[in-house]
Amino acid sequence: MKQIYRMDQFPTLSNYKPPRIELLSPDSYMTRLCTFTTRGCHFDCEFCSVSPFNGKTTRRRPVPEVIQELQRAKEWLRSDIIERMTHGSLFHALTTSLKIWVGLEEGSIVAFVDDLHNSHRAYCRELWQSLKSLNIEWGCQSTLFLGDDPEMVKLAADSGCVSVFVGMESLSEDSLDETNKGFNQVQKFGNQIKMFHDHGIMVNPGIVFGFDNDDESVFETAVEFLTRNKVELAYFNVLTPLPGTALFERLKREDRIIDQDWSKYDGKHVVYTPKRMSAEQLQEGFFWANHQFYSWPCIWNRMGHTRQRLIPRLEMNWEFRKLIYRTTPKGALSPLAKVLKNLQVKLPTSETQQLIPNALHPQPSPGSKPQELYLKMKARRHDAFAALFIDLEGTLDHLNAKELLKRIQQAGRAAKMDIVVNFENLKHATPKAIYTLLDGEILQAISPHTKLRYRNLTKAFQSIVSEIAFDHLDLFDEDIQHA
Ligand code: SF4
After folding, report:
1. CA separation for the pair 80, 99 (Å, rounded)
2. How far is the CA of 10 from the centre of ligand 1 (A)?
3. Which end of the chain, N or C, is less packed with Cβ atoms under 10 Å?
4. What's the CA-to-centroid distance between 118 and ligand 1, angstroms?
5. From the CB of residue 326, how many other CB atoms can be counted at a distance below 10 Å?
6. Count of CB atoms within 10 A of residue 382's CB?
């Protein structure tokens, strides 16, 4: 025997010996009818252990072997159920029949537990075609962007797919980019979920809280989005730097790991110092999101959209709710969470005439049209100045300038903090928008609640600002430093 055996290549998945599922205790698992088709992942999300552990390519099992294994497992489970029904009490036989009828009996759904079931289109096509002959219902872990492909979603549904776990991770584009998951596109999420729902497939997203771009607003944003889009279940996690991942290496380099008790590396505990909120706020927000999502009003809201598989969907939520209420404190959001959430928006820009480019950016070629027909507001707390910083991106028109000021007024009233609006990264603005921002009447209404400052506005849009008489306003602060 050697002391250490090192693997120099990943093993092939042909001739894989299926586990003896009959040895598993029926009371310890949601389903014993589970298997896998692939290992590894060609993506490279910073927090994920799959590609460091199982390789950055996907290995796949031969389809006939998967089908053969499932056929055997299905037959074994059927004989096991019949055995239990014929040898148990009449009551047991009746309840089992009822559970089979409503889809609650074990084995109603086969679970593919591979981390990225849909990694290869041709393979999935072959596998899903072959699954039709088994006449089973199944669930898997897939990418959300499978929902962009109606043909494949239909094929999955026709072959028995009734549920997908999807690694949504975040509702923030910046957080997704940060974790190397830019292939998840927030603006597509709603339609992708709908595509699955339209084919009778339940959607169960995994959400991670605590990326460096996350602040206290992420919890409410996630729960609201998932409720609005009627997802069946959600798995919330605290970002966890598992040893061996790129995230672990980075946080270690940055000296941000605060706990090395591996028993807490379970996605439920905060073991590092987050960037834009405290560790307590992250922990409390995680608790809060769980309780909120599995509260009765929220469950009801999510269930009501279809009667499809209503009882299994309610039952799963009921089980999750019991688990959450048994194991998770209630949690709470910080008073600033709502304020920040209200200031993190992307508004459409409707006026495209008379756009003035920001003088702080390289000038676009004459006649070129602006690409950013939206205004993105990104707010964050600046502790050193006890102020809220709002960075603007995209294109500002009259309507979204009004909306910006309305939200600033609400934020000032709730947060009682100074507010700094930064125009450095804005690409274009209309003259009418700049006039609105300097409208004395609107600004007077804001001033009792907050001290408002515009940063880089004069440098960026000098030609318009210089036309406006604003002597009575103390608005410009070009020297204030960013955190
Ligand atoms: S999170 Fe999913 S997509 Fe990303 S590396 Fe892990 S398995 Fe692959």
Report:
1. 15
2. 18
3. N
4. 12
5. 7
6. 16
Q: What's the CA gap between 119 and 123, in Å, rounded?
A: 8
Q: What is the distance between the alpha carbons of residues 456 and 354, in angstroms, rounded to a whole number?
A: 20
pLDDT tens per residue, range 382-402? 877 778 999 999 999 999 999
Ligand 1: lining residues by beta carbon, under 6 Å: 41, 43-45, 48, 50-51, 115-116, 167
Q: Which of 345, 455, 352, 460 is nearest to 404 (CA)?
A: 345
Give the C-alpha separation, 88 to 293, whole Å: 38
What is the CA(345)–ligand 1 centre distance, in A?
Answer: 27
Q: How far is the CA of 50 from the centre of ligand 1 (A)?
A: 6
Among 86-100, 215-229, 319-333, 469-483, the least confident range: 469-483
Strand pairing category for 38-39 and 59-60: antiparallel
- Of all protein residues, whose CA lies closest to atom 7 belonging to ligand 1? 115
446: left (phi over 0), alpha (psi -120 to 50) or beta: alpha
111 or 383, higher pLDDT:
111
Probe target for ligand 1 pocket from 36, 42, 50, with the most ligand atoms within 8 Å of CB? 50
Tell me how long the chain is.
483
Which atom, in ligand 1's list, is nearest to the CA of 143?
A: 3
- Tell me the CA–centroid distance for residue 173 and ligand 1, in Å: 17
**Helices assigned H by DSSP within 269-382:** 279-293, 296-303, 310-327, 336-342
Q: Whose CA is nearest to atom 6 of ligand 1?
A: 48
Provide the 10 A C-beta neighbour count for residue 102: 13
- For 336-465, which CATH superfamily applies? STAS domain (3.30.750.24)
Contact yes or no for 469/436 (Cβ under 8 A): no
Q: Give the pLDDT mean for 134-155.
A: 96
- Cα 206 to Cα 15: distance, rounded to the nearest angstrom: 32
* SS3 category, 235: strand
Atom of ligand 1 nearest to the CA of 44: 5
CA of 143 to the centre of ligand 1 (A): 9
